[in-house]
Amino acid sequence: MTIPTRPTTERTAESGSPPEPEPWLLPLLKRLHFYAGLFIGPFILIAALSGAAYALTPQLEKILYAEQLNARSDGPPLPLAEQIAAAHRYAGTGTEAASLAAVRPAPEPGATTRVMYHDPGLGPSEHRAVFVDPGTGEVLGDLTVYGTSGALPLRNWIDQLHRGLHLGDAGRLYSELAASWLWVIALSGLGLWAAAWIRGHRRGLLRPNRRAPGRWRTVSLHASLGFWLVLGALALSATGITWSQYGGANVSLLREQLGWQTPALSTSLTEEDGAAGETSGDHAHHTHQAGPAPTTQPGEGPNPATFDAVLSAGRDVNIDTGEVEIRPPAEAGSAWVVQEIQRSWPTQVDSVAIDGRTLDVTDRTDFAEFPLAAKLSRWGIDLHMGSMFGLANQLVLLVLGLGIATLVVLGYRMWWQRRPGFTLTDPARVLGRVPWAARIVLALLAVGIGVLLPLWGWSLLAFLAFDALVAVLGRRRAGRRPAA
Questions:
Q1: Checking CA distances to 132, which of 123, 187, 205, 422 falls within 20 to 30 Å?
Q2: How far apart are the first and last CA of the chain?
Q3: Residue 69: which residues within 8 A CB-CB, separation 6 or more?
Q4: Element (H or E) spanning 407, and its range?
Q5: Does this UniProt record's set of keywords contain Transmembrane (predicted)?
Q6: What is the distance between the alpha carbons of residues 37 and 43, in angstroms, rounded to a whole number?
């Protein structure tokens, strides 16, 4: 007995009408949702739980690192030069001063100033931060900070767990798999939910049906919870992909080709930039009348006195928030940078490049003039990190993370509750129903997504190979069964 390559329901009327084709979209969605949930579920579970934990870290940081974050004095702040000098004395002169990376002045009364140093023993985007009381110059602590967010050790540890399980680039593959498949699981689940709604099986779809027996209660919990979380899951997937190793690089390239990239601040200086009094354009060469102290001190790195002068020049242009980072030139022929780092609403991330010799503004970027795509990217990242709307944003992320983790557990529970009668349907019975036109469209769509998200594409091929293996084993098993 041969297995037909394209089964149908074979409901042929006595009049000889052609057989009705079997439905294909719903079985295909079920199979896609099942495979993705089965194999990618553990990655999504870890990402969801670690993301939920990350949402709580800003409040935990304020408690754990209160000594470093809170100034002991309430007097007027000392000049930045004196605060930096105090940090240098604590950190050590010479090498430490020469490795000065950035300074973040106290953003508000009662907060401390961060003087940040390069340290070859730290990882990428990590700095050694010395916390200084701005009113007295007293050093209150010494911690490792990470990234633009200035994450302290606890938040950084959870962040690295969420990003890559503390396994480096190899570990980042887990989070990329989770982000690349979360949207597929969410959309296929929404399709199954919509199909049930259309067929009239609406009880338990919007809220759990606690009276349903056994497995159907779990199905109701999974379906109703998934419906209310689907938009959040899609948003987390989209923003998470932008940070991924391979897919994120392709998204950045696509944005560049479409002209949607975030404007970059130029820090290169030319001879003309050093000529005092020259101006060119609306956003460049703003002249500051008072000249600063020498930009550098021989053998000792950036001159602390220049930080005050550069910040003052930036304030005259477009720097008007308390949360600011000042970076000295990374190399000879480069400008100083003063950048707003406020990620809460309203977003303030303006930046300005300043020639430390003349205090002329050589370039500037203003968030108000960013392309819409760049603004959406900034907002999406800040929402994903829970910084845009403060505590409310964090609570939403906490609920989303715990909710998605619950969906994964419920999915495995449904699978367990179907044992021992549960079997994987023969792939030929599912894929064989798909019309050829739809197969071509789906194949082209899969190739396009796979090119943009390579890890998604390779894992999809792995699913298809597994599906083919299931089909072969199923046919062999059927061939060994004795005839009735």
A1: 123
A2: 13
A3: 61, 62, 111, 112, 131
A4: helix 390-417
A5: yes
A6: 10
What span, in angstroms and rounded, lies between the C-alpha atoms of 149 and 84? 21
Interatomic CA distance for residues 302 and 295, integer angstroms: 6
| Three-state DSSP class for residue 18 | coil
What is the rounded distance in angstroms from the CA atom of residue 65 to the CA atom of residue 69? Answer: 6
- The predicted model scores a pTM of 0.84
pLDDT at 431 over 90: no
Element (H, E) at 479: helix 454-480
User: Per residue in 275-300, pLDDT tens?
Assistant: 443 333 344 444 444 445 555 554 46
Nearest 5°: the CA angle 232, 234, 239 is 95
Among 10-24, 343-357, 399-413, the minimum mean pLDDT is found in 10-24
Q: How many other CB atoms are there within 10 angstroms of residue 277's CB atom?
A: 9
Higher pLDDT, 391 or 16: 391
> What are the structure tokens assigned to 150, written together?
């200035």
Residue type, 280: S
Which pLDDT score, from 0 to 100, does residue 333 have? 85
Domain definitions of the chain by residue range: 25-53+169-256+393-479, 66-151, 284-369
Question: 203-211 — which CB contacts under 8 Å span 24+ positions?
Answer: none
- Tell me phi and psi for residue 322, to 5 degrees: -75, -25
Check residues 189 and 2 and name the one with the higher pLDDT.
189
Torsion of CA 301, 306, 308, 312, to 10 degrees: -140
Sign of CA dihedral 272, 278, 280, 285: positive
Contact (Cβ atoms closer than 8 angstroms) between residue 136 and residue 75 = yes
Q: Degrees (nearest 5) of the Cα angle 362, 363, 365?
A: 160
8 A C-beta contact, residue 115 and residue 132: yes
Q: Residue 140 contacts by C-beta under 8 Å, 6 or more apart in sequence?
A: 67, 68, 71, 72, 112, 131, 132, 133
Q: How far apart are CA 244 and CA 162, in angstroms?
A: 12
Q: How far apart are CA 152 and CA 148, in angstroms?
A: 11
Instruction: Give the other-Cβ count within 10 Å of 87's Cβ.
Output: 26
